[in-house]
């Protein structure tokens, strides 16, 4: 893994655009060749939550046709189809089983907004079927899945865009350029902040599977558990079987910017995490409060990451964002599209900007051009930004400081921690040993 992946990451970090490396041709369906008047046919997988933004984002593009909506919950699925048809005046296909979408040769692109535990397998199956992929953050549910996704994208020459949309923000591109150009001096530390209002999720117990939901498909590669509204449809985020807590939810945007802004193209060597549940007596398994530290001793850089769930102050005027510290000043990033800088000991205001971008358009542009070099959220970010969150969660779950080997991508002499780099998959939704 070291030779190809480490090279790809280095070039990706430097260019902030990714790497175009073609290893082999697709073995199932040849790549589409788009002319100037061709429309890219898109299927959206998972339409209950974030998938609604996918529907809207792709519908706004003139060279895209929204062809199919897919969700294992037929009640939600039909509701979204009706909403789309009422708004657009166009019919859209519906399908509960994502495998049938992959079998449809008329589909060029799949956009994945399913729960986290489905992201990697759906992406790999799509690549094998000759589809290009937009996959929501985190692109993986566990660390090792990121490696598999990169392998599949390269092998089948697919465009895989990770849903870290701040990378398409013109303000964020400018902010990172300032960091590279030395505006705040030697940038040695990044903080990622996720201070979100998260009330108790309660405990709804178990009940029969509701009509219209294919619970077997919803569960997919995860361990099968009795049906509960504790999981379906949103609160799966707070259960290890399906989600990754808020560092692996909202936090992926911030882990991504931490690494991008610091210019680190590998994983840390020292990781500590502490936190827990302090507020609510509910069914949530992931920590309400989490503080993680990632140390890069060779690069002399450090990442701090903090999740808070309730009443809190902001830091530097931001609660969802990042702060970068340098030898000559600091930079505050608020949300996805605004930054401001403060220079010198007297904190003199420096450059600032607010400007967004269109991550869906950037992806479609890359699909049409068959050019990974123009991507803002290329496949490498799936492993880097998601992987950092996974390492922090593993440190929390083991309850101790961990030493990680970034080249081997394994913990050093720690069988328990290494076991958490992957998961057991439920047949027939198993991760292939070789993609």
UniProtKB/TrEMBL annotation:
Signal peptide start and end residues: 1-33
Classification via InterPro entries: Gfo/Idh/MocA-like_OxRdtase_N (IPR000683), Gfo/Idh/MocA_oxidrdct_glycsds (IPR050463), Gfo/Idh/MocA_OxRdtase_bact_C (IPR043906), NAD(P)-bd_dom_sf (IPR036291), TAT_signal (IPR006311)
Gene3D superfamilies with a match to the protein in the record: Dihydrodipicolinate Reductase, domain 2 (3.30.360.10), NAD(P)-binding Rossmann-like Domain (3.40.50.720)
Protein keywords: Signal
Domain Gfo/Idh/MocA-like oxidoreductase N-terminal: 40-163
Molecular function terms, GO-annotated: nucleotide binding
PROSITE patterns in the record: TAT
UniProt entry tagged with the keyword Ion transport: no
Annotated Gfo/Idh/MocA-like oxidoreductase bacterial type C-terminal domain residues: 201-268, 360-430
Protein name as it appears in the record: Gfo/Idh/MocA family oxidoreductase
């Amino acid at each position: 893994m070291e030779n190809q992946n480490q090279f790809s990451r280095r070039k990706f970090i430097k260019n902030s655009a990714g790497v175009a490396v073609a290893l082999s041709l697709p073995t199932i369906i040849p790549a589409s060749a788009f002319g100037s008047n061709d429309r890219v046919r898109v299927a959206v997988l998972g339409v209950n939550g974030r998938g609604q933004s996918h529907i809207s984002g792709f519908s706004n593009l003139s060279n895209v046709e929204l062809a199919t909506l897919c969700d294992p919950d037929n009640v939600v699925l039909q509701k979204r189809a009706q909403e789309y048809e009422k708004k657009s005046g166009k019919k859209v296909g519906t399908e509960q089983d994502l495998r049938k979408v992959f079998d449809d040769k008329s589909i060029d692109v799949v956009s994945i907004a399913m729960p986290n535990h489905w992201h990697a397998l759906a992406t790999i199956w799509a690549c094998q079927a000759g589809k290009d992929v937009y996959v929501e953050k985190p692109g993986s549910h566990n660390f090792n899945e990121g490696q598999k996704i990169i392998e599949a994208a390269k092998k089948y020459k697919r465009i895989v865009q990770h849903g870290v949309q701040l990378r398409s923000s013109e303000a964020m591109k400018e902010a990172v350029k300032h960091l590279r150009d030395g505006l705040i001096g030697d940038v040695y530390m990044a903080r990622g902040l996720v201070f979100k209002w998260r009330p108790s999720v309660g405990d709804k117990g178990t009940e029969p599977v509701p009509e219209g939901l294919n619970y077997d498909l919803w569960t997919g590669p995860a361990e099968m558990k009795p049906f509960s509204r504790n999981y379906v449809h949103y609160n799966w985020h707070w259960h290890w079987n399906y989600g990754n807590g808020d560092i692996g939810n909202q936090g992926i945007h911030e882990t991504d910017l931490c690494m991008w802004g610091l210019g680190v193209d590998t994983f840390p060597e020292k990781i500590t995490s502490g936190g827990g549940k302090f507020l609510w007596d509910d069914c949530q398994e992931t920590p309400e409060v989490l503080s993680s530290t990632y140390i890069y001793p060779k690069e002399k850089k450090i990442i701090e990451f903090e999740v808070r769930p309730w009443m809190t102050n902001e830091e530097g005027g931001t609660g969802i964002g990042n702060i970068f510290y340098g030898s000559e000043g600091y930079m505050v990033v608020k949300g996805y599209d605004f930054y401001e800088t403060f220079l010198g000991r007297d904190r003199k205001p420096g450059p600032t900007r607010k400007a967004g971008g269109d991550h869906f358009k950037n992806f479609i542009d890359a699909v049409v051009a068959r050019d990974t070099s123009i991507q803002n959220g290329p496949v490498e970010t799936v492993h880097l930004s998601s992987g950092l969150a996974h390492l922090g969660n593993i440190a929390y779950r083991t309850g101790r400081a961990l030493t990680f080997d970034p080249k081997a991508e394994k913990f050093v002499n720690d069988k328990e921690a290494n076991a958490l780099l992957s998961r057991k998959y439920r047949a027939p939704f198993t991760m292939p040993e070789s993609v």
